[in-house]
């Protein structure tokens, strides 16, 4: 193709389906009187020639370069915008159809959306992969090279954000009316690097090369207020009212991301908010020479959407987190009321139009915000506003850890959000009267249930506020929901047993099987036919093939190909060369003590110590590669020390000729969705070893099982349901269950007793403590060793021997590859339950009560 052929004529934007979505959001009165305004134009043709033309148009007139002079990033951006163009027409068609037949919708409020790369997902949803591949070949471009050019959006941290991304994918696939709301972090979660084995955080500037999947609407700004004070006044009707006189304001600028359903023509919206100053630049101050002061307000405002989860160990950090949380829910609720709904909406009908799902406690400040709008802007009395608000929210609790249930000091709330603090006091007063009526004379219960806590300082308990105001409260796995009812929120479940329910988490099979594991997907389709990607229950049809020797051989071939792929990825990405022929043992998740990465490490040190001491014949050891992937929160010292210890042990084991070919540890930095999509399909063994009663659910455990890894795990979170579904013979169970954990802790746990009575454990810990893995520097590991021996909050030493015994069973099972393959196939066949489509059906049936489809 010549350069002149690569430049094509321009076309009016309107004829290319670019009518802005905001022209259609408030009803016909906002649409221009033009034939194109009645609805979106047709989707571009699904042909190779049509795709080439659209791609070159974007390259020429979007990037301003001819093909012959375009960079890789130019080509990627042009490709992304071309695919986005195919989605845009469907997006507008979806909005038009829903506007014509409005139904109750979901506003999914989440501080995180861990989306992963968008290109492949969009190509899959539009069934354009083959066409795009051929079109690019005709232009002399390799689609795989453009895939690698894409930067993953840094909008989430871990399971919470990954779950939110799965859920909005499923809602689009089910044609459920939903808008996801969140923050457009400029830097998102940090990029993790290792320096001398220690974690170092650097900014993840994921927008540095452009954001082709977002559509900004700066003209649809939302004012957000902070600080100041409130004042009382008497209205014309003689009723006393309150107005909030803010101290400072920012603007919320919205960015729309399209969320396509799987090959169904439906495209929903993810709406993210960026903070901008109301007056970004002071020319007078600038001309006076004070350049920093001239842009001070801009810098101050933009800090709000700068970084995901700013370090909150300082008062300034805490305040910034609360600013973030209020900012995004204030923008989102305002957007729904003022921009998404018709202007003649009667707010008394709000519960028939919206249910806001609170994804953990981060968005809970939205409850008093809706109350403020109803009372102060819509002039409703408190009782009426409270009755409406209590029908508009539902709350998902994602934790069992008390420290993860957010609280905000009253003093901070009064300073930053004075009107909201007043409303919270009003809500609490009414609520505590309900408690006293239900449990007369029980003032201790009243104190426990109060939204306002007194110790160690007066503070707002956000989980309590969410529970009081929500129509439903759900946990995310059967065990988690039970513990939520029985322990974490037991007073509330006793008062409102009907309010509590369970929705076990799920993952999207589009990204985490079909997209991430094309080899397995092809084998499944060749075996049971098409349709399973949107109906994961059909994986049950694979069960009979577990007994088929030929199918087992093909299944092993898939696993081998996936191991080759991850080997190439880690070599290119991290310079890590994985040994071949090993059992691939994977533990990837956020670094937190309750997840017990130290237990996995002790197992590897035990294997290593046994070989180098001569007690174990190396020839009898199953070759094993362990891959860790984890980020530690910047202020989490023990997690960072654990990372250093893992890297220290890895450095020694990987370079000791005595265990060469037998043991290897890989810890690639900056584990993210993109790496997960390559690593999970290759895994043989999935490590899910949290202390029973601490992990809410987990979703990594589901992804591994769906991709044919066997699980070694405790009876915790969704592990319980995985084991029940796949069967005890296809799951390696170890450790105490939750009642046994509670009993041991009640009696008074003494970790040193386990250290002293278990020789293998003692030798493993002593080897670490000797400085063997840290060049003789015992001080470098003293924090971790001291914590294990004298604290061990998550009972690593108590579960050690059970874990070692279970790992011996793993080795014995892996030696019989036919039996292992049979178990792995049954894991795939029996875990279709963990589709996020099923999770969404549960939310729809049990909580939201919305309609899907037209």
From TrEMBL:
Q: What class of enzyme is it?
A: transferase
The UniProt similarity line reads: Belongs to the glycogen phosphorylase family.
Protein purpose: Phosphorylase is an important allosteric enzyme in carbohydrate metabolism. Enzymes from different sources differ in their regulatory mechanisms and in their natural substrates. However, all known phosphorylases share catalytic and structural properties. Allosteric enzyme that catalyzes the rate-limiting step in glycogen catabolism, the phosphorolytic cleavage of glycogen to produce glucose-1-phosphate, and plays a central role in maintaining cellular and organismal glucose homeostasis.
**SUPFAM superfamilies in alphabetical order:** UDP-Glycosyltransferase/glycogen phosphorylase
Which PANTHER family is this protein grouped with?
Answer: GLYCOGEN PHOSPHORYLASE (PTHR11468), GLYCOGEN PHOSPHORYLASE, LIVER FORM (PTHR11468:SF3)
The record lists the organism as Nostocoides veronense
Q: What is its EC number?
A: 2.4.1.1
Q: Which reaction does it catalyse?
A: [(1->4)-alpha-D-glucosyl](n) + phosphate = [(1->4)-alpha-D-glucosyl](n-1) + alpha-D-glucose 1-phosphate
Could you tell me which Gene3D superfamilies the record lists for this protein?
Answer: Glycogen Phosphorylase B (3.40.50.2000)
Provide this UniProt record's keywords sorted from A to Z. Answer: Carbohydrate metabolism, Glycosyltransferase, Pyridoxal phosphate, Transferase
| Name under which the protein is recorded | Alpha-1,4 glucan phosphorylase
The coiled-coil regions, if any, are none
Cofactor(s) listed: pyridoxal 5'-phosphate
Mind telling me which NCBIfam families this protein's record contains? P_ylase
Q: Where is this region: Disordered?
A: 1-44
């Amino acid at each position: 193709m010549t350069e002149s052929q690569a430049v094509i004529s321009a076309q009016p934007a309107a004829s290319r389906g670019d009518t802005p979505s905001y022209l259609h959001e408030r009803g016909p009165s906002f649409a221009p009187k033009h034939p194109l305004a009645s609805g979106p134009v047709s989707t571009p043709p699904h042909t190779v020639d049509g795709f080439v033309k659209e791609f070159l148009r974007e390259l020429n007139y979007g990037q301003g370069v001819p093909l012959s002079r375009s960079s890789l990033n130019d080509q990627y951006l042009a490709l992304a915008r071309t695919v986005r163009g195919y989605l845009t027409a469907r997006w507008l068609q979806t909005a038009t159809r829903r506007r014509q037949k409005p139904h109750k919708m979901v506003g999914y409020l989440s501080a995180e959306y861990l989306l992963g790369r968008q290109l492949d997902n969009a190509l899959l949803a539009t069934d354009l992969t083959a066409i795009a591949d051929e079109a690019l070949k005709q232009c002399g471009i390799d689609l795989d090279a453009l895939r690698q050019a894409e930067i993953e959006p840094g909008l989430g941290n871990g399971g919470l954000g990954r779950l939110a991304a799965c859920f909005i994918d499923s809602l689009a696939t089910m044609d459920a009316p939903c808008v996801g709301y969140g923050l457009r972090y400029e830097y998102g979660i940090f990029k993790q690097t290792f320096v001398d084995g220690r974690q170092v955080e650097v900014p993840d500037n994921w927008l540095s090369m452009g954001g082709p999947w977002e559509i900004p609407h700066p003209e649809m700004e939302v004012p957000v207020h902070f600080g100041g004070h409130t004042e009382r006044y008497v209205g014309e009707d003689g009723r006393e009212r309150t107005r909030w006189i803010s101290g400072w304001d920012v603007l919320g600028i919205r960015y729309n991301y399209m969320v396509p359903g799987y090959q169904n023509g439906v495209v929903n919206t993810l709406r993210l908010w960026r903070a901008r100053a109301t007056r970004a630049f002071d020319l007078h101050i600038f001309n006076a020479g004070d350049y920093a002061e001239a842009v001070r307000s801009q810098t101050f405002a933009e800090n709000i959407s700068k970084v995901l989860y700013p370090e909150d160990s300082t008062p300034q950090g805490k305040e910034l987190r609360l600013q973030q949380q209020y900012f995004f829910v204030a923008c989102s609720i305002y957007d729904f009321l003022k921009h998404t709904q018709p202007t003649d909406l009667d707010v008394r009908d709000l519960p028939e139009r919206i249910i806001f799902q609170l994804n953990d406690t981060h968005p809970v400040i939205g409850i008093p915000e809706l109350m403020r709008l109803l009372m102060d802007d819509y002039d409703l009395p408190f009782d009426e506003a409270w009755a409406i608000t209590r029908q508009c929210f539902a709350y998902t609790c994602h934790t069992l850890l008390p420290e993860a249930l957010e609280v905000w000091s009253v003093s901070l709330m009064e300073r930053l959000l004075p009107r909201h603090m007043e409303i919270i006091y009003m809500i609490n007063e009414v609520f505590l009267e309900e408690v006293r009526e239900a449990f007369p004379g029980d003032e201790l219960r009243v104190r426990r249930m109060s939204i306002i806590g007194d110790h160690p300082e007066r503070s707002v308990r956000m989980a309590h506020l969410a529970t009081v105001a929500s129509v439903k409260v759900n946990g995310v796995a059967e065990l988690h929901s039970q513990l939520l009812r029985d322990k974490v929120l037991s007073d509330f479940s006793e008062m409102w047993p009907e309010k509590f329910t369970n929705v076990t988490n799920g993952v999207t099979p589009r990204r985490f099987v079909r997209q991430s594991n094309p080899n397995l997907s092809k084998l499944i389709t060749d075996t049971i036919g098409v349709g399973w990607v949107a109906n994961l229950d059909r994986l049950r049809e694979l069960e009979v093939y577990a007994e088929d020797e030929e199918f087992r051989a093909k299944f092993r071939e898939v696993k081998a190909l996936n191991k080759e792929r991850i080997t190439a990825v880690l070599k290119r990405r991290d310079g890590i060369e994985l040994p071949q022929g090993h059992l691939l043992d994977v533990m990837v998740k956020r670094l937190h003590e309750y997840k017990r990465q130290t237990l996995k490490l002790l197992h590897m040190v035990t294997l290593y110590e046994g070989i180098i001491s001569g007690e174990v014949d190396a020839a009898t050891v199953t070759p094993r590669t362990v891959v860790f992937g984890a980020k530690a929160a910047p202020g989490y010292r023990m997690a960072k020390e654990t990372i250093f210890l893992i890297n220290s042990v890895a450095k020694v084991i990987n370079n000791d000729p005595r265990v060469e070919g037998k043991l290897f540890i890989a810890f690639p930095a900056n584990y993210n969705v993109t790496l997960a999509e390559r690593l999970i399909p290759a895994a043989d063994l999935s490590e899910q070893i949290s202390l029973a009663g601490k992990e809410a659910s987990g979703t990594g455990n589901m992804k591994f099982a769906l991709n044919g890894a066997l699980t070694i795990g405790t009876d915790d979170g969704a592990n319980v349901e995985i084991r029940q579904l796949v069967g005890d013979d296809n799951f390696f169970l170890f450790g105490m269950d939750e009642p046994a954990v509670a009993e041991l802790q009640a009696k008074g746990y003494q970790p040193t007793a386990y250290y002293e009575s278990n020789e293998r454990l003692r030798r493993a810990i002593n080897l670490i403590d000797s400085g063997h893995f840290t060049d003789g520097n015992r001080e470098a590991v003293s924090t971790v060793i001291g914590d294990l021996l004298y604290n061990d909050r998550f009972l690593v030493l108590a579960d050690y021997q059970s874990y070692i015994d279970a790992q011996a069973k793993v080795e014995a099972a892996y030696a019989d590859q036919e039996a292992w393959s049979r178990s792995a196939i049954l894991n795939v066949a029996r875990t279709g339950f963990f589709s996020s489509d099923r999770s969404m059906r549960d939310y729809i049936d049990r909580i939201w009560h919305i309609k899907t489809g037209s």
